[in-house]
Design brief:
This protein has about 180 residues and is an all-alpha fold. The protein folds into two domains: about 1-45; about 45-180. Helix content is about 90%, strand content about 0%. Helix 2 packs antiparallel against helix 3 (about 95-125). The N and C termini lie far apart (about 105 Å).
């Protein structure tokens, strides 16, 4: 065999040996860290479950109260006013557009909250002393879904603000038009 080929073969063999040793050490460290994390989750299991139970109860109450307010904003304020404006043959396009966007955001909020609630319930059913990493992953997924619900709430509030400013603009235009017609 040529010396160059021998050098390459020996180099590949050494590289393979080093990578096997290195990844074996990394894998052992990962396993050790995973075992430590599992032990921490088991040790705080009861406390974590109690905290999640309280969060689940308070979020459910908050969801009902907020959901009713958001629904009322849509059905009792926005939709009724838009209908009234439209029945008086006034231009309600901007108000209706915001209301439609708000309705879409409200439906997204409901759907995302349902997904979050189901994930949190799933996490609470997991025995974290027997399946600590499954519990950890389920809680992490619930946290992500709860963050999405927060994003949805922020978006709803943006549409409420947008409707208010669109309403104020409508009132201003209406007053200006009424004054012009009166003269």
């Amino acid at each position: 065999m040529n010396i160059r080929i021998q050098s390459v073969v020996i180099g590949l063999f050494v590289a393979g040996l080093v990578s096997t040793i290195f990844f074996g050490v990394v894998n052992a460290q990962s396993t050790q860290e995973g075992d430590q994390q599992s032990a921490r989750i088991r040790a705080s299991c009861l406390s974590a479950k109690n905290t999640l139970d309280r969060l689940h109860a308070s979020d459910a109450l908050l969801r009902v109260n907020r959901g009713q307010i958001y629904e009322s904003m849509s059905t009792k304020l926005m939709t009724r006013f838009n209908s009234r404006v439209d029945s008086n043959r006034l231009d309600a396009k901007a108000l209706i557009g915001v209301t439609e966007n708000y309705g879409t955001a409200l439906a997204t909020f409901r759907s995302d909250y349902q997904s979050y609630e189901e994930q949190l319930s799933l996490a609470l059913r997991i025995d974290c002393t027997k399946e600590p990493m499954t519990f950890f992953d389920a809680v992490a997924d619930a946290r992500t879904k709860r963050t999405q619900v927060h994003v949805d709430v922020v978006k709803l509030h943006q549409y409420i603000d947008e409707y208010r400013s669109t309403f104020e603009s409508f009132v201003s235009d209406y007053k200006a038009t009424t004054q012009e017609n009166a003269q």
